Amino acid sequence: MAQTTSRDVARLRLGAAGAAVTVATVVTNALAYVVPMLGARRLSAADLGALATVLALAAIAAVPGFGLQIAVAAHRARAGAGDTGRLGSRTAALTAGVTLAVAPVLTVVLRLPLALTLLLAATTFATVLSGRWLGELQGDQRFLRLAAGMVVVAVGRYGGLVVGLVLGLGPEMCLFLATLTGLLALPLLARLAGSPAHPRPADPAPQRPPAADPAATSAAAPITGASRLGARQVMTACGATLAMLTISYADLILARQLLPAAASGAYAVGAVLTKGALWAPQVVTLLVLPRLAQGDRRARLVALALIVACGTVLVVSSAVGGELAFRLVGGADYLHLAGTAPMFAAVGALYAVVFMLVNERVATAARWPAAPLWVATAGLAAAAMVIAPRTVTGVLACSLIAAALAAVVMGWLVFGRSALTRRTGDCHRG
């Protein structure tokens, strides 16, 4: 009876954590959406184009921050607390330095004001450095504080932009205010993560599993450096993050390149369904990452089941309400694509599975965790350019096949190799 009550409390806490992280994600996305909406009303077309370009560059430059967060979270979940300050500072400084070095080139090639590209380096430093503390909170499974930290980072990243646009300031001053708010958010984020490294009782899943999955550990690369967190782990996580972003946008880029303007615009409308199915279950991956780093096979199966269930619901809903989906996303002009709605959703649902499995490979220190994604991206590009018809359906079919093959390969790497390793270990023991 006591055990049942304890499990119920743990599930309740985990549900509360999931809800909190979901709300934090919604707040982040809402702030990111408000910026172009206000910019379209407050800036000239030229200024809006410049600001939008810099924000796109900032999203690319933020990749090391996500890699830092994943690497820190996996290390803390697997090996406990360690010194992440020096690594975080070096990663942020290096990223900002590279951004600063290429600022003159970006200014000339993209026809941007020099002030914008210089400020980009400063705001990049704050964004990347925040990954250190978010990773500590995630790795310690302090998910309620993690949700608060995500909101702090989002307000710091976009708050200054929103204030500047509301006041009618130009792009340079808006980005300057965003740099200030981003830097000011760091002390608050550090305070949130500054509690003892062990999870607090109020947060969900505070206890680590009694034993790690030996198969998961063996199937990964030798975790000889698991006790140390260094540049290699961060670079691996950065590479995986970049691969996930690349393959998730590859079909959109190919559609823009291969299709007529009207068809590429229609594809962009359908891709909204792909992104919705991709990011809807990402809270599951965020919550389960520490358990994956500890080799918890049950958590891996539960997470995969939840993501598959979510994707199935979204695909079925798209099949039933395809016309409504396209009407809401793009309007009546795109209703002729309603039949493709479940295909767009299926691509996102498959990539959601792939991304969880890639995170599992990163968390268990596997070698080249994102290699299948780069291969799938290259295959998608080759098939779309050489084989597929130059239509929305043609590009979409290539994207769906690439996503399915990537899911199969990643599933074999995570589950098939683990089972093979377990059988080999049993034979050796026998």
UniProtKB/TrEMBL annotation:
Would you tell me the protein name for this molecule? Polysaccharide biosynthesis protein
> What spans are recorded as compositionally biased (Pro residues)?
198-212
Keyword Chloroplast tagged: no
Q: What transmembrane ranges does the database entry give?
A: 12-36, 48-72, 92-110, 116-134, 146-169, 175-194, 234-254, 266-289, 301-322, 334-358, 370-388, 394-415
Instruction: Please give the residue ranges the record annotates as the region Disordered.
Output: 197-217
Q: Which UniProt keywords apply?
A: Membrane, Transmembrane, Transmembrane helix
